[in-house]
Specification:
The structure holds two protein chains of two kinds.
Chain A lengths: L1 H8 L12 E4 L2 E4 L2 H6 L6 E2 L1 E7 L2 E4 L1 H9 L4 E4 L1 H8 L4 E2 L3 E5 L7 E5 L5 E7 L12 E8 L2 H7 L1
Parallel strand pairs in A: 6-9
Antiparallel strand pairs in A: 1-2, 2-4, 4-5, 6-8, 7-11, 9-10, 10-11
Chain B lengths: L2 H11 L12 E4 L9 H7 L2 E5 L6 E7 L7 H4 L3 E3 L18 E4 L6 H9 L5 E5 L6 H10 L5 E4 L13 E7 L12 H4 L2 H21 E11 L8 H10 L2 E4 L6 E2 L3 E2 L2 E2 L8 E3 L7 E8 L5
Parallel strand pairs in B: 5-6, 5-8, 6-7, 8-9
Antiparallel strand pairs in B: 1-3, 1-4, 2-3, 9-15, 10-15, 11-14, 12-13, 14-15
């Protein structure tokens, strides 16, 4: 659970997770409802809201978790339509594609990437000072994970 | 006699003249994810032309598209799912779903599980199982993409459902079946009547087990995408005689279930089932069952 809280903190988000409703299986974390907790058996494959997994000491968030963090005021950037599309194709975000930064964003911080409807498309790492003057084509956010992964998983 | 001649002559005896069918892609809006969002308008703005499916509340035909409907941002955000039109019917036939315990007996790849969760507003519990473990990954990807949070997934054969130690208010049996030619171009080359008989036996076993885990006043929705009466009306006739079940009235697209199958007269109540011959949709069969004597 600490891995999840620490991950959210990197976005400036405070998550409160009820430990009684958390289960971990083979490095994967799931958040249950009270009702699911009542019925779950040991040999489950998937349960409730999948929050992410740890592999070789590193935490990989799920899109459920990113959505949840979005609801908890995590640092984010809103990007325009073209940048949204490129981002879910796995590309980085140029400075000119960002229409609104939200939060005290510094170089190397993690940020959620939201589209114009404020839906979470994934997250990335800030690689340049967003407040400084620079070229529109400078990479501003390096893509770490995006929802296009659902398609990529199918071909793996 | 070729396999095609064999099967199409059977359909003729059942009152339907074989006709080649081309399926139109269909989508279903996930309403709990898209409240306050005009998904139809959003899709149209990126070149996906939709038309409402008249017999479904949240289903649309994809009439034309400049992009793949399975690769838009809206799809990846779980705002809609790609789901064949007839396959959208079964989950809508339960009377109420909010807060219930629901068993999706043959759940992969998860289209109907996500639809059930949507109809339940993510309340209650869905237990989704599939006997083929490798099919669980696409199922759980589907749940994650659509933000489903009320589901437990097990790699379990529906014939062993008693191992779950639960009773269910609602059971969806979208049974493994022989399929139909409309959704499989090589269907006639691949299928024989012995496949149909084998699937019919498996379906009976699943029905038998469903009764064991069905709660009092519970409902079972049974469906297949097979056109063969052995997997449909004949199985239901068997269930009425052997499992103390009764067929409930349903109000959905389709024709009455057959009560005369190759000269065998079946229980009259099987008319309440719905049979869909391929035309706008793939071939399909669906019915709702309750324990005899339970409240309607």
């Amino acid at each position: 659970m600490k891995a999840i809280i620490d991950f959210a903190a990197r976005f400036g988000a405070k998550l409160s997770l009820n430990p009684d409703l958390m289960v971990k299986k083979e490095g994967r974390y799931f958040l249950l409802t009270r009702l699911l907790r009542r019925f779950i058996l040991e040999d489950f494959y998937y349960a409730g809201a999948y929050l992410g997994k740890t592999k070789a000491g590193k935490f990989f968030p799920s899109f459920n978790l990113l959505r949840k963090m979005g609801e908890n005021k995590a640092n984010s950037v809103v990007v325009d339509r073209k940048a949204s599309w490129l981002f879910i194709c796995g590309r980085d975000i140029f400075r000119k594609g960002i229409s609104a930064p939200n939060g005290p964003l510094k170089v190397n911080d993690y940020v959620l990437v939201l589209n114009e409807c404020h839906e979470c498309l994934g997250f990335g790492r800030i690689v340049c000072n967003l407040n400084a003057v620079g070229k529109g084509t400078d990479v501003a956010v390096k893509n770490i994970s995006d929802v296009g992964d659902f398609l990529r998983r199918e071909t793996r | 006699m070729s396999s095609k001649e064999f099967f199409t002559s059977r359909y003729a005896k059942l009152g339907w003249q074989f006709k080649e069918t081309r399926l139109t892609q269909a989508i279903r809006i996930n309403t709990s994810n898209s409240r306050g969002k005009n998904i139809v308008q959003r899709l149209e703005s990126i070149g996906v032309k939709l038309e409402k499916i008249p017999f479904l509340k949240t289903g649309y035909w994809v009439k034309d598209s400049t992009v793949s409907a399975g690769a838009t941002a809206e799809y990846l955000l779980g705002l809609y799912s790609i789901q064949e039109a007839a396959a959208q019917i079964p989950a809508t036939l339960f009377t109420t779903l909010d807060g219930k315990t629901v068993y999706d007996a043959c759940a992969a790849p998860g289209g109907k599980t996500v639809q059930l969760a949507d109809l339940m507003n993510n309340t209650g519990v869905i237990v989704a199982s599939d006997m083929k473990k490798k099919r669980l990954t696409p199922l759980t990807n589907h749940l994650e993409r659509c933000g489903v949070t009320n589901t437990l997934v097990y790699g379990l054969d529906a014939r062993r459902a008693h191992r779950l130690g639960m009773k269910f208010n609602r059971i969806l049996i979208d049974a493994p079946c022989s399929g139909n030619f409309a959704s499989d171009r090589n269907w006639f080359k691949r299928r024989t009547i012995s496949d149909v008989d084998r699937n019919a036996r498996l379906q009976k076993d699943i029905l038998k087990q469903a009764i064991v885990v069905l709660a009092e006043n519970g409902e079972i929705v049974y469906s297949t995408c097979s056109l063969e009466p052995e997997e449909n009306e004949l199985n239901i006739d068997w269930a009425l005689r052997n499992l103390d079940l009764q067929v409930e009235e349903i109000d959905c697209y389709g024709q009455k279930g057959l009560t005369d199958v190759f000269g065998n007269l079946l229980d009259k109540s099987i008319e309440k089932c719905k049979r869909i011959w391929p035309r706008d949709t793939q071939g399909f069969f669906v019915c709702k069952l309750k324990r005899r004597g339970d409240k309607s």
